[in-house]
Amino acid sequence: MVTSSPAGGASSRPLAVVIGPPGAGKSTIGRRLAAALGVRWHDTDAAIEAAQGASISDLFVDHGEDHFRALERAEVARALTEGDVVVSLGGGAPMDPATQALLDGHTVVFLDVGIADASRRIGFEGNRPLLMVNPRATWTKMMNERRATYERLSTVRVDTAGRKPAEIVAEVVAAIGHERPGQDATTEEQP
User: What is the pTM of this model?
Assistant: First the structure.
């Protein structure tokens, strides 16, 4: 699923851009945050998969990381021009200098997570191309390399460790101050 249902009038930029490592909950929280705010949800990885007719893993294997990152950069640029939307980025998207420049001035929500919760959430199975060999060590190394960038780019940081999606969404809504009238950020939705 790339987007959720729209509501309300358009603004010139996303209400929030959700970033973080694999297993942080970017898609789950992005979708639920959009619902709480009454706006559409745009998942850049899902949009790339739909446009290319291939999974992220297949794009990595068949065309290489550089090709995938170029597709990702273009999709992020497109998503950031949409109004009244919550955008969830792939974990590596914020590492691109051009994407970092695009994020400047946006409300960027960093979903922070430790390896225990990330492992439980994604299982470190084969559908994550950068985590295929020794996933725990690879994830830890990747997070150590990315953490400073995630922190620098974010305007809001939320620790997701051991927390339910509704709690995380409520914290983000409170931090960004965009809850729509009649919407309840703590209402659980079906995934």
Answer: 0.82
